[in-house]
Amino acid sequence: MRKPAFRQVFSLLIAMAVILNLTTIVAADEGMWPLSEIPKLNLQEKGLRIDPSLIYDPAKRSLLYAVVQIGATGSFISEEGLIITNHHVAFGSVQAVSTPERDYLKNGFLAKSRAEEIPAPGRTARITESFQDVSAEVLSVAKKNMSYVDRTRAIEKKIKKIVAEAEKANPGKRAEVAEMFPGKTYWLFLYTVLRDIRLVYVPPLAIGNFGGEEDNWMWPRHTGDFALMRAYVGPDGSPAEYNEKNVPFKPKTYLKINPLGTEKGDFVFLLGYPGRTYRHLPASYIAYEQNIRMPAVADWYEWQIKLMEEMSQTSREVALKHDSRIKGLANTMKNYRGKLAGLKRLNYLEQKRQEERALQEFIQADPKRQAAYDQVLARLDKIYDDMGSEFPRIFILDNLRRSVTPLQIALTVVEASIERQKPDLERNAAYMDRNFNRLKQRIGLTLSSSFYLPTDMAIFKELMKRSLALDENQRIKELNRLVMPDKNLDDWLVEFFNSTKMADPEFVKSLWDKKPDEIKKIEDPMIKLALALYPEYKKIEETNRARKGQLDELQAKLVDVRQEFLGQQFIPDANGTLRLTYGRVEGYEPRDAVYYKPFTTVQGIVEKTTGQEPFNTPAALLQLINQRKFGRYVNPSLDQVSVCLLYSTDTTGGNSGSPIINARGELVGVNFDRAWEATINDFTWNHRFSRSIGVDIRYVLWILKEFAGANNILEEIGIK
Amino acid sequence: MRKPAFRQVFSLLIAMAVILNLTTIVAADEGMWPLSEIPKLNLQEKGLRIDPSLIYDPAKRSLLYAVVQIGATGSFISEEGLIITNHHVAFGSVQAVSTPERDYLKNGFLAKSRAEEIPAPGRTARITESFQDVSAEVLSVAKKNMSYVDRTRAIEKKIKKIVAEAEKANPGKRAEVAEMFPGKTYWLFLYTVLRDIRLVYVPPLAIGNFGGEEDNWMWPRHTGDFALMRAYVGPDGSPAEYNEKNVPFKPKTYLKINPLGTEKGDFVFLLGYPGRTYRHLPASYIAYEQNIRMPAVADWYEWQIKLMEEMSQTSREVALKHDSRIKGLANTMKNYRGKLAGLKRLNYLEQKRQEERALQEFIQADPKRQAAYDQVLARLDKIYDDMGSEFPRIFILDNLRRSVTPLQIALTVVEASIERQKPDLERNAAYMDRNFNRLKQRIGLTLSSSFYLPTDMAIFKELMKRSLALDENQRIKELNRLVMPDKNLDDWLVEFFNSTKMADPEFVKSLWDKKPDEIKKIEDPMIKLALALYPEYKKIEETNRARKGQLDELQAKLVDVRQEFLGQQFIPDANGTLRLTYGRVEGYEPRDAVYYKPFTTVQGIVEKTTGQEPFNTPAALLQLINQRKFGRYVNPSLDQVSVCLLYSTDTTGGNSGSPIINARGELVGVNFDRAWEATINDFTWNHRFSRSIGVDIRYVLWILKEFAGANNILEEIGIK
Q1: What pLDDT does residue A16 have?
Q2: What is the pLDDT of residues A498-551, one digit of tens each?
Q3: Fewer C-beta within 10 Å: chain A N or C terminus?
């Protein structure tokens, strides 16, 4: 089996490749760049071989228009609106249309024709059409002598107005104002929102989620984390809800696929919608996250996961209801644990504190700076300290609303009855006419796809117990006074949850247009509880509004003085808007004496396969591997089909599904994760550890061709 | 901190090194070679740069005489009898001389002068002086018509006679006959046994056992697993028990140290005393190990470890008593788990079975072969099947004797009273005059250093319960009938253990020369139990003797026919006698996309350090690393002191402490472990996975110089 002669030649080739790399080395840098920054990046010097304007130029059919926000990110790969994204991005939709009889989640799904494509309920795809700086306009309403609450309210209202005007001026488009630097810079984005999205191809769970939670955030990885969907529009070409008569959407541009994939050392870039990063926040924020919030949330999610796994023993139907919920909780839990390990590994809090000590000296060294910034850090510290002390109580209230579906619905009904009485622009955003339908739809979907009463009851009980364990003045009295002293808690819970109609979709539907007085008359114990708790949530909302007013002011100042101190311009933290990041295909050393290579192979699938979930590779796939039916999709340097790859881009949650694009602007893979050591990206980027993980386009094409027999799709995307 | 220019040059150097390696590649092969095989190995073609006769030539002061068996292996590194071995080999001795007040185990120990060296109670060091084939003589007593029991007995007796004659002819030497191929080849070894061994230098536990059980059997490794001892002899130069007037032993030869260490790709070889391998045994043996014995033992050891860890909470004194016991159990447990994973990874049982199916066809293809070998595999299968069915009961009896010290002592006392009545040559080996003192000494040492009554009581209770859970006809009735039906089990246990004097060293001493009748009169419940159980153990002994007679015959035949079938000559399995193994310094790929480099660095110690055991690096060491006080011991290709290294030799337990010797016959490290994927070595060797782990001589010297300030030692070994 060993081929020494071949191996020698091969080693020689590798050695030469290493030498060649020295002359063509490309840099990887920190940065989730707003597209307007592209001209400053000198991407061609770093390895790009096309004109950067082909990526972003509002006047051209540039690559920008091939990228969609679809939960996370996706991209068009045909002129007929075919979208490639991750299996885990499509997961919720696949779950929603699966039943024990038609278990697409487990078995996968292929539409052999357009007619067989399945509508993905509630799924939308947004395309960024344009953006412009509206900071001056937004900040014009913030007056010096305003209270912080009033300042926040004024800005909120102004933003709503800008949005309303923009949507009026651009019929059919959706407008959003994004905070780029909070308190400092605001951009108005215009989106096209496609509302009829259908499933085209989903691999079986054992491919699309191979390795499951065990491998999540980990390298080496062997997950075929991709799925195909298609966007449809009305016969006139404009966005529309699902309708049989709809036609495939024709994107302005789409990505060409390079079936040869990419190689170690290659320049690559991603476009996508990274969610949130926190790189400009102070050390006290890191301390709050590291010492208080993240450990508590990780433990609580672990508790919930165990609960749901137990409940899931009941039946496959019940398990299906929990799948998506568990996946979400586990993902966050492991991400937080990774971040906590990373913060410790880099001793990041201490680094931040050292920087801030030096920054404070810099501030005090100059009277003008002192006047402007002296108390900035101290006031930020105070805010995060306060948040730390309030945390245990807020945490319970927050999770009551987030994780107990009937209570969530009752609170939404109560809030809707109040908010919907106000003029549209004065409502909380979710209750504005433009968003309210979406909210109702989401609640309906939760009830039909992931709600399971015994689970929510157990969560409710646990939160009640945790409230009782708080200091007496912190307890949520409205919650704990509910239980009759003469009743056993479990008996009471069953009665309480059985007598609410908040899990009855038809009844809930009948409440959306009720007025506050009508709501108060409803004899439903969950509504009564929601009415009792609602003032608590309003209080928190007001506290947050006041705090945001302060934070906006302080963070804006912190960014200003840090830029002056460090002598560099910052780019805004990720905020869910379209960004570009670049790097190269490269492995890394997670720890002393260990090197992670940048490509895994199908042989690794065989090695990991145990037959048990999540390592239960379909027999047909094992056979294809063992028979080496690799065709044109073999990675020549590995003599195997490569499955996943590593590259040094700067990504975070929301970049899932981002296209991995080569120097010539061609699709070579689909981003879906970061390495364990890169979970810390949200706080700081580090070239040694920050690696993103994608699925190799050769594996995608090989699965479509040899495993799924999806010739219709291959033909559509121009692959023979 | 990053130096791109330097890195580029460095990568270029590495790339060139890779190319150069192609022309100087050295092979690594399976094999723990008896030294008589060295001339056949063409070691100079494989990279050795000295005359092979310098390793082994009875007529010369060859390297052979620098190697000692000292628990596992050690080697002389000065003309004054200084021995280097592993920390974990010296562990038991360090534990035995440690107290909470003088905790050498925790804090380490350095003798600044000969006078400060501490005698290691019970420790001996053996030097192989010569060996010769005595197969014909041994097998001459095995007659055709003998029963299997008689055959085994006859061979046992003949061996004892050969040994007695050899010791008579070579006064002062110890003789042993080793089974090379069971039932086929027997060699007579002559040893010099040094009996006054003293501790010279032991690093603190946090260096010598850094990573503890967590890192055991693992790469990457950062353990300074070395210790220094010295052998003393009487003033006349002959072996003697400890005496103040003894003088350092002058070895025939010792290893010169190369302070520059070794590099990737270098040829290295080890000399040592590997314990046991099982490469020539049939598939049915692998099935027995994989499906029955190893899983049961691993689970049982895990249970014991948990128990001992709980008990150790009591005090540091109690913890010290358990340290060595836990270390031994954990080591075996993890080794078995590694083997089980490895057997699965390689699908080894199925491979073996396939080979045997082909072998059986080969046997049946020829009438002469058929006549000689037809039933060999079937009869072997039957034996291992029988062992599998008997296992649960034997396991309990075996562990009663092995893990419950007072019962172990009582059984030994009972057996001694019977065996010591027989003529010396007819006794079980342990009770022969030449061994009996050693046995008594070992029991005394167990009582003083590792016995803790509550632990043994809990183990006894658990084994009683397990006996009760057996099928009724399998139960150990002598055990379970002990408990009075009117007593609570725990109360009974306390009374039972409190009324035995088997843990009183003085009382035990008074029993060694008692006759069977005297023993029967002793009013001690543990002696009563031992007397009741003793016939059970005798029965097992006789069964084993009959089985060994059969196995010897069958295994010898299996080796013969497999050699014919495969067309190759085998070398005997490891059996605790001196062997050579060679390979080269090289990393490996434990799994897809992961490469383990062959050297770890002190920077890795910093990364692993948590401050908590077993990652609690001494502050002084961290400081030396952070200040880069590396002196001449830096590994130039890493710009760090390297700590441990990997190489592709063929090793097993007993090779611990083996010198890692370079192509010029110089010491460049000390072997102490195998990688997780190499635990399978005991069954089969595999170039992809079989890597041994050693501590780099540069780390040893750096610790001695900078951390321990052991200038007296460095001077003695000629290092400035």
Answers
A1: 42
A2: 999 999 999 999 999 999 999 999 999 999 999 999 999 999 999 999 999 999
A3: N
- Neighbouring-strand partners of residue B194: B125
The reported pLDDT for the residue numbered B47 is 95
Task: Say yes or no: B244 and B299 in one domain.
Answer: no
pTM, two decimals, is 0.88
Structural domain contains residue B617: yes
Partner residue facing B220 (CB), from A18, A592, A598? A592
Contact (CB<8Å) B600/A607 = no
Q: From CA B645, how far away is CA B220, in angstroms rounded? A: 9
Q: Would residue B158 count as lying in a domain?
A: yes
Do residue A413 and residue A488 come from a single domain?
yes
Do the Cβ atoms of B226 and B86 come closer than 8 Å?
A: yes
Would you state the pLDDT for residue A27? 54
Least confident range from A671-675, B299-303, B464-468: namely B464-468
Say if residues B644 and B693 touch (Cβ distance below 8 Å).
Answer: yes
* CA A616/CA B501 separation, integer angstroms: 58
Tokens, residue B39: 């001339």
Give the closest of A19, A601, A604 to B15, CB-based.
A19
Least confident of A57-61, A88-92, B156-160, B650-654: A57-61
pLDDT tens by residue, A147-177: 999 999 999 999 999 999 999 999 999 999 9
* A374 falls within a domain: yes
Q: In B, which residues are within 8 Å of A635 by CB distance? A: none
What confidence score (pLDDT) does residue A19 get?
40
Residue B418 CA to its chain's centroid (Å): 31
Q: Is residue B222 domain-shared with residue B103, that is, in the same domain?
A: yes
Q: DSSP secondary-structure letter at A255?
A: P
Host domain of residue A689: 33-124+195-278+572-716
Same domain, A219 and A289: no
Phi–psi pair at B453, nearest 5 degrees? -50, -50
Name the amino acid, one letter, at B125. Answer: A
**B225-280 pLDDT per residue, tens:** 999 999 999 999 999 999 999 999 999 999 999 999 999 999 999 999 999 999 99
Whole-angstrom Cα distance, residue B188 to residue B589?
A: 41
Contacts of A2 in chain B (CB under 8 A): 687
- Residue of B12, B592, B610, B637 best to disrupt the A interface, most CBs of A under 10 A: B592
Candidates A18, A593, A597; nearest CB to B15: A18
Burial class (CB in 10 A: 0-12, 13-18, 19+), B469: exposed
The contacts found for B456-462 with CB under 8 angstroms, 24 or more apart, are B456/B403, B456/B404, B456/B405, B456/B406, B456/B497, B457/B493, B457/B494, B457/B497, B458/B307, B458/B311, B459/B304, B459/B307, B459/B399, B459/B403, B459/B404, B460/B400, B460/B404, B460/B407, B460/B493, B460/B497, B461/B489, B461/B490, B461/B493, B462/B303
Tell me which chain A residues have a C-beta less than 8 angstroms from the C-beta of B601: 592-593
| pLDDT tens profile A186-240 | 999 999 999 999 999 999 999 999 999 999 999 999 999 999 999 999 999 999 9
Q: Is residue A16 part of a domain?
A: no
Say whether the ipTM exceeds 0.95. Answer: no
Distance (Å, whole) CA A616 – CA A612: 5
The DSSP line for A483-549 is: S-TTS-HHHHHHHHHHT--TT-HHHHHTTTT--HHHHHH---HHHHHHHHHHHHHHHHHHHHHHHHH
Q: Same domain, yes or no, for A180 and A207?
A: no
How far, in Å, CA of B586 to CA of B26, rounded?
Answer: 11
- The domain that holds B657 is classified in CATH as 2.40.10.120
